[in-house]
Amino acid sequence: MTLDDLGIAVGTVASQLSLVENGKREPKLSMLQRLAVALDVTIDDLLGSEPPSRRAALEIELERAQRGPLYEALGLPKVRISSRLPMEVLESLVGLQGELERRLDEQVATPEEARRANVELRAVMRERNNYFPEIEAQAQTVLDAVGYTTGPVSQHLIADIAAHLGFSLHHVNDLPHSTRSVTDLKNRRIYLTQSQRTDHDPRSVLLQALGHYVLEHRTPENYGEFLRQRVATNYFAAALLLPERPTVEYLERAKAAKEIAVEDIRDTFAVSYETAAHRFTNLATEHLGIRTHFQKTHKSGIIYKAYENDGVTFPQDHTGAIEGQPSCRRWTSRVVFDVQDKFRAYNQYTDTPSGTFWCTARTERAASGEFSLSIGVPYAQVKWFRGRDTDIREKSFCPDESCCRQPPPDLAREWAGHAWPSARAHSHLLAAMPPGAFPGVDETEVYSFLAAHSG
Ligand SMILES: [Zn+2]
Would you state the CATH architecture of domain 111-241+432-455? Predict the structure, then answer.
């Protein structure tokens, strides 16, 4: 039935019916009654929101899609929707449109989103002084179960922990590239690499894998949740490697002796400097009443990780993100790269617009480059730390551009306009987050790996 046919049947012109059809005019009740009679349906059918058939549902969906911005942006011709359009063409067009929308949704974890997720997470960490008692309690339960008392947590004890939780460990030489470990929840197996990658403490890698299980993590629904889970499993691993009670006892003794030093924590519990520094931020405010900041900075000056609850002002972008920003050249985290003595920690006082801070730092080499790891405290707290007697003092005016972001005038006069550097992209910080529940992980590779090994 054409609009003309229907117009004759209900006593109006086709153009008026077209306005009704396209939702530009509301029909009168009397018109609705005449339409129902002419089409041999009830008024309920006319007003109902459910499409009367699969075909009608597809036609409505295709019409909606062709009017939307996504279809417009594709620059494709619009398909005229009529009874002559074969059903399989309708199904195909609507299906393609739906799949395209789904894929775009999956990729929404843009760098912008990732940065926002980081900012939110840091706000929560600051609010809680980076101390999470519920994770401490879970770590303690696990340690009690395997009879831990004091001192470093050995690889042997961690294997006991895995066994206690019902997991067997399998070292393989074909672990999927995009992973550090793979857990087979069906057969309760944890796969780890055989190769000795120096970047990651094998104990941490295993404890993080167990952390997902103990903390009852579900498949993350978005990048923010992925990030929260990763922070929680990192925390869990650190809480096992540096158990709360002995670590706090150790720190309290060091504080009483005014000898707190991150490298001593590292040596006492046999962990990396980064793990020791990070763990210090968990316990310092809660147990020692010391506010602090932590920074992991690449040799290029770019900040990879940062935390503070002591009022230090980190550089940040318009979203409040710190990761990916350049650290001030005069800060300990940058100056330490130029220090020749790598055996001892480097200590420095820095006057900043938000106060004077004392910081201690070391550099560590990893596959991805050289990094500095630093812990800092406000001037009033330095009395508890070894290395407070340093006479090195720097002044930082950042974020004032004149501090260190602009080249000195004489250099600028000579070279401005005569330099064309080709930038090295910090792809991991700036690239769009790879799609998928576990960003960057190739699911096919993981599933085929599990299939091959579980047989
Ligand atoms: Zn600066």
Answer: Orthogonal Bundle (1.10)
